[in-house]
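Why should sequence recovery work at all? Because a backbone constrains its sequence more than one might expect. Tight turns favour small or flexible residues, buried strands favour hydrophobic ones, and helices have their own preferences. The token representation captures these environments compactly. In the example below, the structure is given first.
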């Protein structure tokens, strides 16, 4: 329309007449996110996909270079995970308005060389973990890094990060990249290029696209929520509905880099923003806490790989920030992102050894969802076979079952105890076709309901 808003109309020729039907309107600030709406232009859909892939590959390449440079220095695996998650946060933070623009890049460029990078990174991390009351003695250059909190920058590195010219160059290459174009939803695919391929196969990691995640999340609860929202007529109902969103509990019991949780959280926040528009429209909101309703702490993920678990935690914070920005652009006010006072509950452990539960007493998960590892019997490690022995104990013929069936049994057991919980897991069709079918579904249908 006027380059602030774009409208899409359908134009049809009916006999001699032209019929124009209004379809949708998109604001300029939403355009980048909703480019898909214009995929009907010839070749445009392909271009969009290609651009996305090239963008992700470039980000992954730079991150993988950094990872490799650090790994060559024999830095301990756990420390690499922590370091990578912290650096990822800083890279996004300086490109998306959590930090001042380029504050991290400028500091590294101006103050470090191939011999002292590690010590400077430690100083930056310490500053990011220093609360306002203790910042009086900080040097001026470091004081540009505000207090972040959230546990991400507290004392978890056992050794100063390694230092040489190659690591510094790789880090600066990451800094010059514009991370604001990368969605936290694709962290899973991005970090597949970073974490070793061999290890990936034995952990059964493969990435689920956003489109496929929505195919789970929409019918599981979002479609219903949206249609309930449409039907609301009174302010009282609206308030009740908003409260419902704030109490919903989610678990992804094999969350990888958190893409199911990210999409779920993001969609609930978007819905909440619509409610805010209706509830507070025209009113002057002085208490911004009224705008904070969907809580990260309601989103739980279990993940055995430490790097993925740390990335999942960061992905949730970054998505929270994106949604805070979105709230500001739609409503004119928002909640501050830092200090991070809440985090998603990401547990870095073997999901099959855990007692699945929320952190709140007597509160069950409303939804269990995800894409647990799919590993056929010939590829299972000794530990995975032992997990299967524990979880599928007593099930006749369990030896042929895929590792993923453990998540089905655990979910079904959970739902037996908590009948209001609903579960949707993504798996390949071999658990519903062929030799596994009777063994698994007999157990699920006869003993778990
Ligand atoms: C198919 S991936 C799905 C991850 C994510 N949803 C995605 O689409 O990228 C399965 C995840 O399960 C994790 N995993 C494998 N065995 C596990 C276990 N016993 N407990 C917890 N997580 C496990 C893997 O490390 C991997 O991240």
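From this structural description, the recovered sequence reads:
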């Amino acid at each position: 329309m006027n380059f602030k808003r774009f409208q899409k109309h359908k134009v049809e020729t009916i006999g001699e007449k032209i019929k124009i039907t209004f379809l949708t309107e998109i604001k300029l600030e939403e355009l980048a996110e909703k480019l898909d709406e214009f995929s009907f232009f010839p070749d445009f859909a392909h271009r969009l996909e290609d651009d996305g892939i090239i963008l992700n590959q470039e980000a992954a390449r730079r991150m993988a270079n950094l990872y490799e440079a650090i790994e060559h220095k024999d830095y301990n695996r756990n420390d690499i995970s922590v370091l990578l998650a912290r650096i990822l946060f800083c890279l996004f933070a300086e490109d998306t308005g959590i930090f001042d623009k380029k504050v991290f890049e400028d500091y590294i460029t101006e103050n470090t060389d191939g011999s002292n990078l590690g010590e400077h990174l430690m100083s930056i991390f310490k500053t990011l973990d220093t609360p306002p009351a203790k910042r009086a003695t900080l040097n001026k250059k470091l004081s540009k890094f505000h207090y972040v909190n959230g546990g991400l920058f507290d004392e978890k590195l056992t050794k100063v990060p390694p230092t040489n010219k190659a690591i510094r160059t790789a880090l600066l290459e990451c800094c010059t990249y514009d991370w604001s174009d990368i969605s936290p939803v694709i962290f899973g695919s991005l970090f597949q290029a970073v974490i070793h391929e061999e290890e990936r196969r034995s952990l059964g990691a493969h990435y689920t696209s956003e489109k496929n995640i929505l195919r789970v999340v929409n019918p599981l609860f979002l479609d219903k929520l949206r249609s309930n929202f449409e039907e609301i007529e009174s302010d009282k109902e609206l308030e009740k509905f908003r409260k419902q969103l704030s109490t919903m509990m989610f678990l992804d019991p094999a969350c990888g880099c958190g893409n199911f949780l990210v999409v779920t959280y993001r969609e609930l926040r978007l819905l909440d923003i619509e409610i805010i528009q209706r509830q507070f429209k025209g009113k002057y909101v002085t208490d911004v806490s009224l705008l904070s309703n969907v809580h990260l702490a309601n989103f739980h993920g279990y993940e055995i790989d430490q790097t993925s678990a740390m990335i999942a935690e960061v992905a949730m914070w970054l998505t929270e920030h994106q949604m805070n920005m979105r709230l500001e652009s739609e409503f004119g006010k928002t909640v501050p992102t830092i200090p991070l006072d809440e985090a998603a509950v990401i547990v870095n452990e073997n999901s099959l050894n855990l007692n699945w539960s929320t952190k709140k007493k007597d509160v069950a998960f409303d939804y269990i969802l995800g894409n647990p590892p799919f590993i056929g019997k010939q590829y299972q490690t000794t530990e995975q076979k032992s997990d299967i022995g524990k979880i599928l104990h007593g099930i006749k013929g369990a030896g042929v079952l895929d590792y993923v069936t453990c998540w089905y049994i655990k979910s079904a057991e959970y739902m037996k105890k908590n009948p209001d919980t609903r579960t949707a897991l993504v798996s390949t069709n071999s658990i519903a076709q062929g030799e596994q079918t009777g063994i698994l579904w007999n157990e699920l249908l006869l003993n778990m309901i």
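A few observations help interpret the result. The beta strands are 5-14, 17-27, 250-252, 299-302, 345-347, 367-370, 422-425.
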